[in-house]
Amino acid sequence: RKEVEQDPGPFNVPEGATVAFNCTYSNSASQSFFWYRQDCRKEPKLLMSVYSSGNEDGRFTAQLNRASQYISLLIRDSKLSDSATYLCVCGQTGANNLFFGTGTRLTVIP
Amino acid sequence: DAGVTQSPTHLIKTRGQHVTLRCSPISGHKSVSWYQQVLGQGPQFIFQYYEKEERGRGNFPDRFSARQFPNYSSELNVNALLLGDSALYLCASSPGQVYGYTFGSGTRLTVV
Question: How far apart are CA B84 and CA B38, in angstroms?
Fold first, then answer.
């Protein structure tokens, strides 16, 4: 079983739409959670960390549900520039690496 | 400020050959991690080095090796290349062991 599982999409949404991505993680020892954004043929870049209390950064909201072991990312008022692959990422206490999901591809359509 | 720099950016090798990829971390960062990203997949952890010592190793064969130098730069070596080694190889630096990752733009390796 993969450490992190995501729906690969693709998600095709019109500009201005709200879109939500979920991912699940298998290891209950996971302690740190992130969403990364990766543009085509570029490196992943940190979008936001995910905290137990949930957190918001502008149009982006991330939430963590430890009981169900899933993480979500909500994007409001989608922009064309939001088109990218969104990677769900988990880290475990004491481990020296991050576990990445396969990514969810988002295309925002004019 | 220079970010994480990787070289070369692209590389084509033949099966059975050896390859060395290089990474220079952000100034002041002591940790370098290597990841392999195959097309359509998320990055997979290969190695982490912190303060010049190996601190983590992913599920990769012994053909993969790495080291970190006194200036904290790092090399990833892959011997006896296979077609399946074709991927984007990403280097990430961080001030500590795991968090605060910044990725370099990667080396795209094609094995033919």
Answer: 9
